[in-house]
Fold this protein.
Amino acid sequence: MAPDRRAEFSAFYETTWSRTVACAYAVTGELGAAEDIAQEAYTRAWPRWTALTAYDDPAAWVRQAATRLAISRWRRSRVARAFLSRSREPEPDRGPDPDAVALTRALARLPVEQRRAIVLHHLGDLPVREVARIEGCPEGTIKARLSRGRSALAGLLDEGSTRTTDGLEGSRA
């Protein structure tokens, strides 16, 4: 589209945005949702801009599109709420795995180079050669980082498992 069309649409957008959001807000009652809906309406108007400029009031088309989108969203949420009210109770969230939390905390205490080597090799399941390529260093350097990192990690994880529950973080009693 020509730059003058873009400028014309941008000006239209800026002058009609607040009224379009207000129409969507009247249906949804949520400002964030109304802004999302208004944005979608303008996204739909952009490919049709040449045709819309021939209308008496192109803003009316955008407001109607926003209102229809808001009503559709309301209907979908109503159906979803009805479905959820008929479905069984969700299982309670058990929270994060204590071992994963301990590992994440221990990894965070390692030097960055060792941490990256361990994560890429052991968690990312990459061979030493690929880790060396990614890190831009020799394979021997990666092997040394892995060895030092595993030793440090073992010490950190043992330290976490020997803590008592008397208020220390990371205890596994």
User: Anything to note?
Assistant: The CA atoms of residues 96 and 111 lie 24 Å apart. Confidence is low (pLDDT under 50) at residues 164-173.
